[in-house]
Write a structure and sequence with these properties.
Layout (H helix, E strand, L loop, with lengths): L16 H16 L4 H5 L9 H20 L10 H5 L23 H15 L9 H27 L26 E4 L2 E5 L15 E5 L2 E4 L5 H9 L11 H10 L7 E2 L6 E4 L2 E4 L11 H10 L7 H8 L38 E7 L25 E4 L16 E3 L8 E2 L3 E3 L1
Parallel strand pairs: 8-11
Antiparallel strand pairs: 1-4, 2-3, 4-12, 5-6, 6-7, 8-9, 9-10
Helix pairs in contact: 1-6, 3-5, 3-6
């Protein structure tokens, strides 16, 4: 059942680091409540991980980089756990292959929760240690990322069950608040020099900097996200059959994987269904389309006579850099984002943040003068800067307070199990 929200107001800075740590750890565990042992252990594809693994890996992160390295005389809870729950940190030694994480039937969920409780208790003295503040902030952001991955990975796993089971009972969920119709049209930007990258005193990942300047040509960004109804029109017009709309790699991917609609769609026309955390539900034609790949987003933009924005254009608008008298100001803490352990679902709002991550046409590359952090945590982002595309804006499964204009999410062009969608751009 959904848990009562006790989230601290992280965006306003009112929450202490200890409050944010405890809230984040509690939220991860709340998401495990609806899951049985088998549910939490299943791994449905190589890109996904079991829910239990996410709960354990985030605990490994705290134990390894905080307790082991900064708490005097700390002994590992179980010396076998690092091999099981290290993800990709080469500096931390050998680890289980990613595709084999679903084989970890032991430890059980209960044993992982006992480990989590142990680590939570041991972490308390470090939460006030000034020397650990930056690393703790990174750990909180890291676990928030895995909360989103837990939600999207378990959705993919449940979608593979022929029964189409629900993680949460739709009848028991509160009715959504009616939303106003999204405003159409475009946000015009005159171009010019824009400052890009993290520019405040708060936390940011290393890939969000250094701050640098880019030159923008005049452009416009759509006020709203592309909807399910518009995507159904794309399908009805033969969008998935018209090679002229697709990049060469994308066309080969379509043929190889037999793709003809977004992930989780059943019935391609309006009135069809899609799979959600509450099972199969009727698709809302006015809700933002989600679970699409970069390939699909680019093809749709071409079909619509538009294009995808660059990450720099998107960030400039998010910062209100369109023009001095502009009334378009967007808060990273607004929009449809995750507040508590409840099923995420794109709804459609007038905010730039939330609902779905938005593809850009920017390759995920280092900014000028980028240098990864020292030590093992330097493997967090920099080594993945090849062959992926930047997404902006947070999703309905992103923990509120985790997003900001400079945030750079990134995925490979064929991946679509995350809450990914698009907002169009055009040249002016």
């Amino acid at each position: 059942m959904p848990q009562t929200s006790t989230r601290p107001d992280a965006a306003s800075g009112a929450a202490s680091l200890a409050e944010r740590f405890n809230h984040t750890r509690q939220l991860t565990e709340s998401l495990l409540v609806p899951l049985g042992e088998a549910d939490a252990t299943i791994q449905s594809m190589d890109d996904a991980s079991p829910a239990k693994w996410h709960a354990a890996h985030t605990t490994w992160f705290w134990e390894t980089f905080l307790l082991r390295d900064h708490l005097p005389d700390y002994c590992l809870y179980d010396e076998k756990f690092p091999f099981l729950f290290n993800s990709y940190y080469e500096a931390e030694g050998e680890r289980l292959l990613r595709r084999q994480r679903g084989l970890i039937t032991r430890p059980s969920v209960a044993e992982v929760l006992e480990w989590r409780a142990h680590v939570n208790e041991k972490m308390q003295p470090l939460l006030d240690d000034e020397r650990c503040q930056e690393l703790i902030a990174l750990g909180i952001a890291h676990e928030q990322q895995h909360i989103e991955l837990l939600l999207t990975d378990i959705k993919h796993a449940f979608s593979k069950n022929p029964l189409g089971p629900a993680i949460w009972d739709a009848a028991a969920m509160p009715k959504p608040v009616p939303k106003p119709a999204q405003q159409g049209g475009w946000i015009d930007h005159p171009g010019g020099i824009a400052r890009i990258g993290h520019q405040s005193a708060g936390f940011a990942f290393d890939n969000e900097g250094p701050v640098h300047r880019v030159l923008l040509e005049p452009f416009a960004l759509s006020r709203r996200l592309v909807t399910n109804g518009e995507w159904a029109d794309f399908i009805a017009d033969g969008g998935y059959e018209d090679h002229r709309l697709w990049l060469s790699d994308a066309w080969a991917w379509l043929d190889r994987c037999k793709i003809s609609a977004p992930l989780y769609w059943r019935g391609r026309e309006c009135g069809g269904e899609h799979f959600t955390h509450t099972g199969w539900q009727e698709r809302d034609p006015d809700a933002p389309v989600s679970h699409i790949s970069y390939y699909e987003a680019d093809a749709f933009a071409t079909w619509a006579g538009a294009r995808l924005p660059t990450e720099f254009e998107w960030e400039a608008v998010a910062r209100g850099q369109d023009r001095p008298e502009s009334d378009h100001r967007f808060s990273a803490d607004m929009g449809n984002q995750l507040d508590e352990a409840a099923p995420p679902a794109p709804m459609g709002t007038e905010e730039l943040f939330g609902d779905v991550w938005q593809f850009t046409r920017s390759a995920y590359l280092p900014y000028p003068r980028f240098e990864p952090a020292a030590g093992a945590v330097g493997e967090y982002n920099g080594k993945f800067m090849a062959g992926q595309w930047v997404l902006k804006g947070a999703s309905c499964a992103t923990v509120r307070g985790h997003s900001r204009p400079s945030y750079r999410n990134f995925f490979y062009p064929q991946q679509r199990w995350q809450f990914t969608g698009l907002r169009l751009a055009r040249d002016n």
